[in-house]
């Protein structure tokens, strides 16, 4: 057996047998355990070996896909590693998805078994009932799975075998299944282990806390594999709890934090406390999407750097870029300089390279003889989409980026979220960031709506804060806030007040659907037309 995730874990267990591999804080497991849980590498290996023998005895192994509805629990890690040891691929499922969405994933993936915690077995059964051919279910409260219906493939698993099938968020349609080989995961772990700089991982000493879901690339391929490759401990939460976050960080002994952009904003909103400085405990945060206006304030208050990175499920470590060395250009959406292992281009909509300093779509590939090294293996059952994203031999990311004078890259927005108004490109995320601190706003999503004269106009779709006024004056106040920090043409020309915005299964705003709805919202009495107030400022004399 060469180059599998289990192979890497077994080596880590041999070198760090008594060291901690997995810690579940009490706040994350109170609904199924009494107090915090911690497993050493040796303990974990024993659990994995027992499950491996169980699965093998019931006919599961190489070439099969098994869906995991195991939440962010220890069971997820143990079942994943046991199945990987046998050469089976896992399909992590999000327990927050409704049965109809899970049914589609089960059918599309061809999963031959669903493995569920007891609390989610009814959901799994409901999803299975929607299929023409019901997928067998193993509720792990029972001692063994049902006998496999289809035989597994012969041979020993290797680096090229599929390790996991992860689905994209589906913000623009049905999710696409990204086929990820063992090599994808082990390369990511080595990439993280060897980063150095501000992200140095000390062998056998790090405790990495993450609230991110295990059905996503970050938690599976980055945090888990980084700890396996360096003999560290994964501190896995069920989800992000702002009110208890810092106490959990203290109690868990975490030394590294993984975050997404919304987390720093929520933590900065907490009342200041005497123990806010974590410089003696936390070495760095690893993540993406921090509001540029919050970046420096967060680091100053809490005492550790937030290291911004860029990657996507499709790019893996082969296309990953990170600002792990100074200058990081804090507050500018900088995510670092590409390493020598990566080639990139910034192109316009015609595919031509943009002039120096201008923004363009980021295209990436690995340097050397294999431009797809470390990237995903393709979209399951969709070779046309795989060919499209790799058009011309480059992975087309869909992200608009600009390069600074020192070669560092700065995120602008997703190409599909860029609003084209009177020849000006406006990043929806930039407008959202300018409005994020408004106490009258619980949530805001910015999109473009058709405009007969200017092509598109900026619309701010606002979920008002509890008790906030919803009228024309409130809309004008929101526009004034944007005008205070943005060029006039970027400010919202429309503000529409909505009760909620549609979301993807991973709780991101479903921007494609919001854009479709926005045209109809123009006629809503809760939509305030502010276009006449968007005026070019008088030129100074």
Describe the structure.
- The protein is α/β, with parallel strands linked by helices and 541 residues long.
- The chain folds into three domains: 5-309, ANL, N-terminal domain (Rossmann fold, 3-Layer(aba) Sandwich), CATH 3.40.50.12780; 334-417, Luciferase, Domain 3 (Luciferase, domain 3), CATH 2.30.38.10; 422-533, GMP Synthetase, Chain A, domain 3 (2-Layer Sandwich), CATH 3.30.300.
- 29% of the residues lie in helices and 23% in strands.
- The protein has 15 helices and 25 strands.
- The strands form six sheets. Strands 2-1-10-9-11-12-13-14 form an eight-stranded mixed sheet, sandwiched between helices.
- β11, α10 (262-268) and β12 (284-288) form a beta-alpha-beta unit.
- The relative contact order is 0.08.
Helices, strands, pairings?
Elements: H1 5-15, E1 20-24, H2 26-29, E2 37-40, H3 41-57, E3 65-69, H4 74-86, E4 89-92, H5 99-109, E5 113-116, H6 121-129, E6 137-139, E7 162-167, E8 177-181, H7 182-193, E9 207-210, H8 217-230, E10 233-236, H9 245-252, E11 256-260, H10 262-268, E12 284-288, H11 292-302, E13 306-310, E14 321-322, E15 342-347, E16 360-366, E17 378-379, H12 383-389, E18 395-403, E19 409-414, E20 418-421, E21 424-427, H13 428-435, E22 441-451, E23 455-464, H14 472-483, E24 494-497, H15 511-521, E25 527-529
